[in-house]
Write a structure and sequence with these properties.
The structure holds two protein chains of two kinds. Chain A has a two-stranded antiparallel ribbon. In chain A, a hairpin with a 5-residue loop joins strand 1 and strand 2. Chain A is of the alpha+beta class. In chain A, about 65% of the residues lie in helices and about 15% in strands. Chain A has one domain. Chain B has one domain. In chain B, about 0% of the residues lie in helices and about 50% in strands. Chain B is built from no helices and twelve strands. Classes of the chains: A alpha+beta, B mainly beta. Strand 1 of chain A pairs parallel with strand 2 of chain B, so a sheet runs across the interface.
Chain lengths: ~70, ~170
């Protein structure tokens, strides 16, 4: 199975080339995608943890989110 | 105030798809660059769209504000990110779009860019993104690369990218 291709447009000449990725480029692409996925997963987990902690705190204080906003206003 | 807006180059992805779209040998004769993208990814979930300059993915920082569906918009940091595009699970034959503004791309200062992007989906999950980025390199930008990142995702056929040059005089 051939490697994926990339498009390269030379802005000086206007020539567009379709170039097959090297094995190293395919590996780099997979690595970058993995990094991006990890980063997104970390952010999602942090957002979920923050929301859970916030809900727990509100419950502990016995107030609603709107009441908390009033206190901080 | 910009008084010219000139197409430098454009590309439409062919039947085989493409892992990236790369504008090379960008002339330094303009003041700013504008990149307009219409894209759909071939694999995975919502596909992040990323930018790189001069073949480098290093020395970038970025922040974005994003709303998705009925959820509360949120902000976070993600280098090179310019928005989320359409995934294969989104409504068939729709494309997301994005516009990136790169001011003073040929200057000897660090390079900033801003982007807005939306994805199209006839369902709750659809994204609107505002992003700001910085490339902390003082070299003039002569190459802009777009990638769509979600596992092994590629740009699908008919995705397009247009690079414009803006002159302020």
């Amino acid at each position: 199975m051939p490697n994926p291709t990339r498009i390269e447009i030379n802005c000086e000449t206007g020539v567009e080339s379709i170039i097959e990725l090297t094995d190293a480029e395919v590996a780099e692409l997979a690595y970058q995608a993995e990094l991006a996925a990890e980063k997104k997963a970390e952010e999602d987990a942090k957002a979920e943890a923050d929301a859970t902690a916030k809900a727990a705190l509100l419950e502990k204080l016995g107030i609603t989110a709107d009441e908390a906003k009033l206190l901080l206003a | 105030m910009a008084n010219t807006f000139e197409l430098i180059a454009s590309s439409t992805v062919g039947a085989g798809g493409a892992s990236s779209i790369d504008f090379t040998s960008i002339p330094s004769t303009y003041t700013d660059l504008v990149l307009k993208v219409s894209a759909r990814g071939s694999a995975g979930g919502p596909n992040g769209l990323f930018i790189a300059f001069n073949g480098s993915t290093s020395n970038f920082t970025g922040k974005y504000l994003q709303g998705a569906g009925t959820g509360t918009p949120s902000s976070s940091s993600l280098a090179r990110y310019i928005g989320t595009e359409v995934a294969p699970t989104f409504t068939a034959n729709t494309f997301g779009n994005a516009e990136v503004y790169i001011p003073n791309y040929a200057s000897s200062n660090n390079k900033s860019f801003s982007a807005d992007a939306v994805s199209e989906n006839n369902a709750t999950e659809a994204y609107a993104t505002l992003a700001a980025g910085l490339w902390s390199i003082t070299t003039a930008i002569n190459q802009v690369t777009l990638t769509i990142s979600s596992g092994s995702s590629n740009f699908v056929q008919y995705s397009t990218a247009y690079l414009y040059g803006v002159k302020n005089a």
